[in-house]
Structure formats: structure tokens, C-alpha cells
Amino acid sequence: MISVSDLRYAYGTHEVLKGISFDARPGELLCILGHNGAGKSTLFKCMLGLLRGYSGSITVDGIDFSRLKPKEKALYVAYIPQASKPTFAYNVMDMVIMGTMSVAGGISGPGEKEKRLALDALSKMGIMHLKDRDYTKISGGEQQMVLIARALAQGAKILIMDEPTSSLDYGNQMRVQKQLRKLVSEGYTIIQSTHNPEQTYVFADRILCIRDGIIYRQGKPQDVMDEKLIKDMYGIDVEMVESADKRVRFFELKEYEDNEENKE
Amino acid sequence: MKKTKNKTKNKRIAAILATILLLTTVCFTGCGSTELSYPEGVETYTYTDDYGREVELRKDISKIVASGPNAQMILVTLAPEMMVGLAEAPSMAIAEFFPDYYIDLPTLGQFYGKKMSLNLENLMNTDTEIIIDVGEIQEKGNEDMDNIQKQTGIATIYVKADLDTYPEAYRKLGKIIGKEEEAEKLAQYCEDTIGMAEKIKGELSEDEVRNILFGVSSTGLNCNVEGSVQAAVIDFIGAKNAIQLDEEEVNGRDGGNPVDFEMLYKIDPEMIIMAEDGPYDTVAEPDSAWSELDAIKDGRYYEIPCRPYSWMSAPPSVNQVLGARWLMAVAYPELYEGDIYNDVKEYYKLFWHYDLSDKECEKMLAHSVGKIH
Amino acid sequence: MTDARKRTTIIIMSLMVLAGIVISFFLGQFSITPKELGGIIISQFADIKPFWTSQQEHVFWTVRMPRILIACIVGIALSTAGCVYQGVFENPMAAPDFLGASSGAGLGAALAILAGMNEWMITVMAFVFSLATIWLVYIIGNRTRGNKTVGLVLAGLMVSALAQAGTSFIKLVADQTNELPEITYWLMGSLTGTTQRDVVFSGAIIVVGIIPLLILRWKINVLTIGEDEASTIGINVARVRFISLICATLVTAAAVSVSGMIGWVGLVVPHFCRKIVGNNMKFLLPASVFMGAFFLLMVDNISRNLFAVEIPIGILTAIIGAPFFIYLITKGGESV
Q: What's the total number of domains in chain A?
């Protein structure tokens, strides 16, 4: 379990995080929502140990995270970035093995044990067939899966993901989110940021809304997400539409004329 | 409509301005003649220089300037007190041998060539009455002389000089600047040197001709090859340059052509001369790459003395006359008629106006005469 | 290509180097027949009555051998450094002179030549100044805010420019007839006149410098995917970067101080190897080591054997390297 308590961070004099506190437990998928510049990236960087100099505390399973060395941190928390074009092309197996470098013993490279871990991760994500393919030549969705496999190979149980599905097509988005749910059911903690409130309704266990550096609302999407939240978070007027069995909820932008009127 | 009319008007103005600019530039570059003007009362005469140029010269010249380092060396041997500027700043070695007033002369720079560094204002300040170029014939030499004369408005002449023609050169210079007596002494030394070289060449049999390697730089492997002006002394004394190349490959600039050890061993020269900053001290050591060369094993390797100027080249000028005597003495000791120590002292007295003591002379030649003394 | 095939390829590359060295034994302006060569070598181990001259033996051990070895050593240093730089800077165009090692060496050599120092001191000065330059670049680069690798590259550019300006100034005040040509020749890069001492000096440093790089090569892989990502995987990014850059630059300094500036090797050889064994440093680094040695050895054979006078090797690597590089990046759909 990861606990963030009264986290504050400022870039120079510009305060970005003004006191964030929350927990994320094993077996839960926490979605972080927030407008651009709200502080999501900064929050993640603090949690991953990429930024120091924050005040407040971050503890993982009771241990003060800031006291750990990078190698030790890696065993608890893994970062899964958005899939993007890397400078150099590696094959998928090598990409995943890279995740094991924190556990790779000695000063040389990965051995049999690390290969095992990588293969397990690949099979768990269902992408064993991509093992020898060139990472730059597979689809965006497959690339994202590879990055998740790398995080699994790392051995961490808390996965932090930065908008994992933003650049994927609809089909791949669905596939990745499904996979994440599967991991959650196995006891992983997943914390991801997203710009799609509607998806959170289906996939997230809890959502956390950050606005201007503080947590504006948090809780189950069913309880927390409504028109007022959308308006306060993103500044748009919407109308909520919910399915009868309350399994799906989406938002429709209110009529254009209304906004024109509001402008003039 | 208004816009297009303005545009055409602008274009026309631009065209007119451009033409005016073009004409003025053409005017300035095309203009300027090689005509010289002298103040009232100054006696002049027409002199034909060695490029065939007719130049009006003053009859009584008292201030002279050299066009470059080669000419500077020659002029300083003849009339240092008449020089009012230097082509290049004197090095530490030169400062040892020449008087203060000479060292303190303003540096004017080189008048032509790749390293054109002439400072025109400095030149005008010196009030020099003539610019003298002495040395080898250059390809566009007469054009260069004309250009200098145009640019500076000062009489510029060229006197041909190389190892075979230094005597005539000195006599000509002596007449132009009014130092015939001194010039005659210098011409005589050069003539004697030529005589000695001719005699040796005549007496040498085919297989007595020495094969000499002339290697400079700290590695000793940059070689001045046959046909280059730097290695002229070797041909002059009837010896053979160890490195012969095709004409195009010859690097006529100081610095030579780089050669590797394997080539050296292949050629195995009889004699090796190297520069002061070269490997002279270490070549005989067993683990040195040089040590198995015949010349090294037999002790026939010498350092080229170089103060104030290297005796062989750098730059290739009248210093080569002394180099010729020295090279004859070490290459053909049995045939050499002079006494190298005396010849050196005489040269220093005549040319550098410097009294070389016996001790200084011995020190200077310590690495340069090998087993012959 | 499977991993097994890659491993075989690397073994083949190492054999190529061996073969290249042996072939080079027989090449040279000075005539030594193969039989004499054999005798000279065996006489080191067994007692044979010499049927060759002492000159031949001397030329082989103090002239030809050092030259062959230094070509391999410098080739190894430059291509390995280039490979590591490309990885650490995440930049396929990175080359060993990025951090100013070459320009610093040039400045040191120019100063030494100006001061009339002998051959060995010129090498030492080049090395010392090269290290000083790198140190300066590192200090400045580390002070920059933001992306440290960009900071290092920029600092390298600035300090290089300064060093080159210094060298130009020295060229200006140098004696035109003696010192200037020597400086120019040094800057062109050449293996002429290599001595046994040069081989020992640079060889020792380069071997010492390459070993950490080979050990760290997997971690360098991780560096290439991005600083943040590498950090969260558990790599001590700053430390791995520091060690790999220090080693790469150290071997560059050692190479450049004995050979002058030889360009293109650090850029072309790693890229060539990428096309063959891929980007994984596990194979790429050893491949660069062997192909670097082979490439420079072959080029130097041309340099010292084609004409009577030496062609400065820096000119040859440019003539061969540049078009080859263009061919590499334009052929095939592979992006650089």
C-alpha cells in the first residue's frame, strides 16, 4: 500500500502541490483526473522518487520512501510511461529484460533468473508471440503492453501509469484497460492518470480529482462523478446520461447556443 | 494599383543605386597606377628589376624595408642600420644575435603570399623609400610587385637570388642602396662557396655521392624532399636527397612530407640531418626505432644548427650559403677545403655582424660535426 | 537475428581482427619476406640462427608491430567511445569529440609544439590538456539546470570552441616555418612514427578504460530509454552516466594524444555494427570494439603502404567514412 500525506511541492516559487493526501491499496485501480497543469505529473514524479525536495511524506508499506535507494524503490513502485518512439530500437524481449536491471545481480547483465522473470511477464500480458519482434515495429497498443510487461518484470506491485491509453486507438485502449483490470484482480495497485472521465466509470475503483494542487474530490466514480464535478474540473457545461443499470455513464456537451449566449 | 506603382518605383531606385555602387567599385579597383611621385629636388633614375619592371628609384636611399622573411634575412646581412621595419617579429634566437635597435623595429607583416599580414599604416609611418623583394622567382611575381607598388605608392623592386646567384644579387643590392663595399665582401664569400661546391662536384665519383635525409619536426620524419627549395643545399653540394618524389607530390612549403620508418629503412640513407627539436638525443638508444639505420649506427647523423636562423632552410634564404659550407664539411670531409670552425666564424662576422667566440662556436657545432673533428 | 547468431557474428569479428593483424605483419614498405617474418617471430621463443638482418628484426619489432598495434588500439578506443556516447546521450549522431577530448588534446599539442618540446612531451601535454578539458566540461555541464545530458553536450560545444580558438591563436603566433606546419600535421591525425612507448601508454589506459564499459553495457542500454524511465527501473542514472562517460572520454583522450584527431571512426563503426547486431549494447559494444580495430587497421595499411609518403590517416577516414556513413543511413528502411 502506498500512502501520500500532505504532499507539497514547488518549482522555485511556484507552488504546484499544495497538500495532497491519499492512499492506494493493493487490488485497486486509482484514476487521477485533473486539468492540464493541475499537478498530476508532479505528483507522479514525487511518488516515483524522481523529484526530491517535497514536503510531506510518501510511505510504501510503512517505509519512508524517500529513504530508499533507487534500486530499492524499484522493487516497490514501477513507472509505465506512454508508449513513444525510442531513440534506438530494441527487440521486445530486451525491452522487458531491462525492467529486471534493479534485481540483476552483480555488475554485469541479466542472467537466467532475469530471463525467467521477463518471460513470465510477457506471458502474463499475453504477448509472448511478440518476444523477438522489433519494438518500434509493433502497434501502439502492443508497445504499451510491452511497457507494462517491463514493469511487471521489475517485480514492483505498485504501478504508476501516465495516461496509458491517450495515444491508442479505441480497440487498443479497451485491450489495455482490460489487461490492467486483470492485474488489479491479482493484487496489483495501479495508479493512472487519464483525461477521459467516462472511462473511469467503467474501469476505475476510485478516482482522485486534483485541481490547483489540492484534491478536490475523491471516491468511487459512481458516487463522485457528476455534472458539477466536470464543470469544476474542466470548465464545461455537460449533461449526464446514465444507463438504466448504472453500468455506463457519459456526458454530453450542452447546446452550443447556450455557450454563445454566455460568451456575449 | 497604388501598391504596384510604388513597387516598380522602388525597383528602379534599387537598380540605379546598384549600378552606381558597381561603377564606383570598378573605378576604385581599376584605378591606381604604378606611377610613383617624388618630392621636388630628389634625384631619381630608372631601374629595371629582375622581373623586367621599370621602376623610378631615388639615387640616395637611406630607408629600406623587406617584402617578407626571406628578403629580410638578406637585407639584414647587408644593411641592418638602413632597415626601418621588419617583415616578421624577431624570435628569441634572433634577439640573441642582433642589436636592440633592430629588434625594436616595428613589425610590418608580409606583403604578399598566403600569410598576408601587412599593416599599411605602420608601413607608411616608417617613411621607407623602397620595398625590396629578394629571392626565388615567383610565378606571378611581377604582378605581385606591381600590386604592392600600387597599394603603397612606394617603389618596389625584385632582385633574383638563389644559391647560384647570391653574388650578383648582393652586388646589385649594394649599388641600389649605396653599400657597394660591404656588398662586395658578402658576394665574395658566396662566390667562394660556389667555387668550393663546384670543385667538390667535379671531384666526386659516382659512388662517392652521399645520400642525405633531411628530416624536420620533433619526430624527424617530415622530410624536405628533392626538388623542394628547402632542400636546395643538398643538390647544390653535389649530394643526393634520400627522398625523391614525383613532381606533384613535392611539398614546397616548410614542413616537408611525412615519411614513415619503413620507408627510411628501405632507403637506408648514408647520412641524416635533423632539426634542433628533433630526436637527435634518443635515436641511438637501442629501443628507438631509428637505432638500426646504418647512418645512426655509424654515427653519421647531425643536428642542423639553427641560431639565429637554421642553416639549411626555414626560411630558405642566404642562410643556405652557410648551410652549404657546413654540409660540404660533414658530407665530404676529405674534399672540403676550408676549416669549418673558421668558416662559421667568418660567416657570422660578415653576415650577422656578430663575433662568435671559439667557445660559442664549439657549442654551436657540438651536435653537428660528428666524428670529423 | 537471433542472439545465438549475434554471438557467432561477434566471434567472427574477433577472428577478422586477428586475421587483419597477421596480414598486416606482411605489409610494409620495408621488405621482409614471409619466411624471414616467421623466423623473426619464432626466434622470440626458440633458438634459431638468424637468416635475416638485424635491421629487419628491428624494423619488425620497433616499427611495424607498434604501428599495427596502435592502429587497433586507437580504433578500439574511438569506436567504443562513439558507441557509448551515442547511448548515453541518446543521440545517434554523437561522436567521441562531443565532450571536447579532441580539441583539448589539440590545444595541448599545439602548446607543446610552440614550446619546442620533444615528441614524448607533446603526447603527454595532449593527454593532460584533454583530461583538463573534459573535467571543465563536466563541471560546467553538471551545473546546468534541467536535462543533464543536454547540458553536457552544450558545455562540450562551448569548451571545444574555446580550445579550438586557442589552437587557432597558437597557429597564428607560431613560427610559420617550423612550428606551424608541425601543428597542422598533428591536427590532421597520423600514426606515423609510432613508438613502443606510445603503444604501452595508450594501450594500458585504453584497456583499463574499456573494461568498466563492457561490464556496464546492459545498464547503458537502460540509459537509452530515457532518464526518468531508467531511474524508476532502479538504475543509478547519475553514477552509470558518470562512469561510462569518464571511461569513454579517458580512452578517447589516450587515443587522440598519440594519434592526433582521427574523425569518423567513432561515428561510422558503431552505426555499421548497429546494422549488423542491433542496438543492444550486449552485442553492440563488443562488435564496436572489434570492428573499430579492424577498420582502422585496414585504413592505416592503406595510409602507410599506398604511396611513398604517408597519407594522414584522418584524411583517409573521412574519405572512406563519410560516403560509407551516407550509404548506411540511406540504405534500407531502418531509421537512424
A: 2
